[in-house]
Amino acid sequence: MNILNIFLLSTTLACLTADAVNIMPTPSRIESGSGGLAVEGAHDIVYEEATEPLGREGYELEVKMQGITIRAENDAGKYYARVTLRQLVDQSENGTIPCVKIIDKPKYAWRSFMIDSGRQYQKVETIKGLLDRMAMLKMNVFHWHLTENDGWRIEIKKYPKLGEVGGFVADGPEQQGFYTQEEIREIVAYAAERQITIVPEIDVPGHSEAALKAYPELTCSGESPKPVKKGFSPYLYCGGRETTVDFLCDVLDEVCALFPSEYIHIGGDEAPKSEWKKCTHCQARIRELGLKDEHELQIELTNRLARHLASKGRKAICWGDVVTLPGQELEKNIVVHWWNYRKGKDKALKEGIRRGLPVIANSNYYTYLNFPQKHKWRQYNKSRTFDFRTCYEKNPSDIQNPTDKQREVLLGMGCCLWTDHGLTEEWLDRRLYPRIFAMAEQMWSTAERLPYAEFKAGVYAKRPLLEAMGVHGDWDEEY
Predict the structure, then answer these.
(1) In the structure, how many helices (H) and strands (E) does the chain have?
(2) Which domains does the chain have, with CATH numbers?
């Protein structure tokens, strides 16, 4: 039995009774007791072994008039119990928290939030703030999109121009900069203290102009990418040069040294092949390997990187584009990141099932939190808007009653905040809140789904606390 002495402080927000415990995400089971425990003063938290199977992140939190007991199988469960306890304290007004027993465990092992630091660079303290709020919502994977056409954001010692040049190719507000390896280690450690694993993304072969401007010899032509006025950039890493594979493996070696995650994301989406079609190196490689087309050349490159990661004990994540076209099989250490519901519905999910590959459910309808709640944010047409209720009730990624085959492959669920169209730091929270509460509920809660009105009331009750923290969302969603 381990005892930790802590000091609890009430933040005096809203009256709380045992029958009105407002914990988000909703716990699996809440049993009300009688009486309450004063929150001011020192209290012993007693840690015990779990008395029922709760899994790696499950916990049992019991508040009695005599004190607080947490039962869990490991540190992750203990941490999430303390997150729940913090919510109880934050809701107290009369100097006590109710006597209550909460038994809880997550629906999914993978519960991710992604920030796009490639298009827009965020300060280290901003990243830490996002991690803090992820922890409050019991999200455990921070998917960090670190490379884009607009910026390369990670220092690579062997190729210093990636940061020194690639980090400064764009000239808009908050589009210049990269994270040093020292800063990345600091952020990784900060996340780990909050039971969050950081999964970095190095996008291959597309979304790579920043790297190609730093090292133009990696393009098909050997020249720096030309400006692209509209659509996805055709300038990719050359798929026919062996030097491309050497470069990417070198980068992944340093990435693996910085991030202890079992998973490394290698992109794979939105890669037009017009340059590959006229590239002598790419066409020679296609003939040499007996491939059908440029898509199969991308799969060959993807598989080589996946094998390299496998040699280091890692798994590769790829956007669903790699399975939505016919072609050769993917390495078995590849995870399919299903995203493009807008164009392909659940095709990537079905292909993941057919191929026996793990799948992360993260459809752009409705987990892309950069899409506006209402049609007033720039550069998005009305078809891409979705409100809080739609997010909660109609999210295709929220598979409430999965089939046996779906259950076999679903690794978990994610949500994304892309920063295109100049989404600077001051706008991030406006995009995230309150809809990210719906994401967290769908990722974590195994309880019966609350009616929308009840769920909304619980979420909106958190608004004063968030605003006291300086978090200002887009709460006015009645329209």
Answers:
(1) 18, 14
(2) 2-104 (3.30.379.10), 110-468 (3.20.20.80)
